[in-house]
Design a protein that fits this description.
single chain, 433 residues, mainly alpha, globular
Length: 433
């Protein structure tokens, strides 16, 4: 019993760290001056490894086991391709023009292993939804407090009393969490929305996970996300509510479902046109999708995040398209094969791609196939919330670099938590029968 209690407490510590990391990643740990992201991912890996040793493994659904297998194949392929380029070609990080070193690949690899441990069922995610919900409440409470300060004409820094990690040095002159408009404990409004959007899905797509006032909570959280005027946040809200109205809303009478679906679509379309008439929202939509070169914006966000990666991939040789260029090796690969995209910008980080294009560029068709099968196995579980979260995650993969980072861990943890709760409910029902 004692060992069991220790194991459960380690599980909960792991889950807590996972949901803390999205806003601790901006900071260095005190004294040691090491970034929290690097430090805590190592802690996560060590804790997961200990849980792996402490048998037995938690029972997981078949779909999760299949997803795990395809995920580790995807990771092994990406690592193998990267090692091949490092050892047998001049496309390696020893090159004088390399913009990364090998240490930059360690954290993504550790994160990939943590995700693998979670998919294996070594981490008990029974408390994950409760812990996540508590952090959502905290994040929203800070956000609303910041708005009260803003309305009162007060701007203060919500930065924790540690220095930024080197990757965030450029933000030292900005007001953390209140830069122009409140963003809670995050540096950017898009990060704020990425953290909250799964909560809306958990409320809307199931009546078992968050039972009390779930529709009211989903509406309130949606309004909070919309008030941030984040492009990713607004687009994801439309996706989530569209899925709810069309697929996931539950009514005993089929006629009611049809009526709600029609009214829901009308509501979403009306909301879109209303938002277009508000200057801040209209500007946001333009920044996302419209190429206003020579006008107010130099380029749309989609240009650099999505179109650029696809354009570069289309210009890769067949071998590169098939096996990939290796993780974070695209800059060196492009120099070797003189690949230039019309969407390149010299003042932006070259290796910044959306997760979808990262998979294609770094792992090629072979890696992309394994990654697709990883998601397909989860989608075949037929659990409504899991399907919804996967669609949200894939939508984010088109616009953000959510591959082998802490947001990736967070979303996978929520998906596994939902799947395991559903399996537990099914097992309980089977025993009772």
């Amino acid at each position: 019993m004692y060992n069991s209690n220790i194991k459960i407490s380690v599980d909960n510590i792991v889950i807590t760290i996972i949901f803390l990391l999205p806003f601790l990643r901006y900071y260095n740990a005190p004294i040691v001056e090491v970034g929290f992201e690097s430090l805590l991912t190592i802690v996560l890996f060590a804790a997961c490894f200990l849980l792996c040793i402490a048998k037995p493994q938690f029972a997981i659904p078949k779909s999760l086991a299949q997803s795990r297998n395809w995920f580790i194949l995807f990771v092994i392929w990406t690592i193998s391709v990267t090692i091949y380029y490092e050892l047998f070609t001049d496309i390696n990080l020893n090159s004088p023009i390399a913009n990364y070193n090998m240490s930059a690949l360690i954290t993504p690899l550790i994160i990939a292993m943590v995700i693998f441990f979670i998919l294996c069922g070594y981490v008990n995610t029974a408390k994950a939804i409760n812990i996540y919900s508590a952090f959502v409440t905290l994040v929203i409470a800070i956000y609303l407090f910041q708005w009260l300060l803003t309305l009162a004409g007060i701007t203060i820094d919500f930065k924790l009393p540690f220095s930024y990690t080197s990757s965030w040095d450029y933000m030292n002159g900005k007001i953390m969490g209140m830069n122009a408009y409140p963003t809670s404990m995050f540096s950017e409004k898009s990060h704020f929305c990425e953290y909250l959007i799964p909560y809306v899905a958990l409320c809307l797509f199931s009546d078992k996970l968050i039972q009390k006032s779930r529709i009211k909570k989903s509406i309130f959280c949606s309004l909070v996300i919309a008030s941030s005027v984040s492009g990713n946040g607004i687009v994801l809200l439309f996706i989530v509510w569209f899925m709810y109205f069309i697929f996931f809303a539950k009514f005993k009478n089929p006629g009611h479902k049809i009526i709600v679906a029609i009214l829901g679509i009308i509501l979403l379309v009306s909301a879109y046109f209303v938002l277009l008439k508000i200057p801040r929202f209209n500007e946001m939509f333009n920044e996302l999708f419209v190429d206003n070169s020579g006008a107010q914006f130099e380029n749309s966000k989609a240009d650099y995040r999505i179109y650029r990666g696809l354009d570069i991939f289309s210009k890769m040789p067949l071998c590169g398209k098939t096996i990939g260029a290796g993780y974070k090796h695209m800059y060196l690969f492009s120099k070797k094969y003189t690949i230039i995209s019309e969407f390149d910008f010299s003042w932006k980080t070259y290796e910044y791609f959306s997760a979808i294009t990262m998979v294609l560029l770094y792992s090629g068709f072979i890696g992309a196939f394994a990654c697709l099968k990883h998601f397909a196995a989860l989608f075949r579980s037929k659990v409504t919330v899991v399907r919804g979260l996967i669609i949200i995650m894939l939508a984010l993969w088109f616009s953000t670099e959510m591959l082998f980072n802490i947001t990736h861990i967070m979303y996978i943890t929520l998906i596994v938590a939902v799947l395991c709760q559903e399996k537990k409910a099914e097992d309980k029902l089977t025993l009772s029968n």
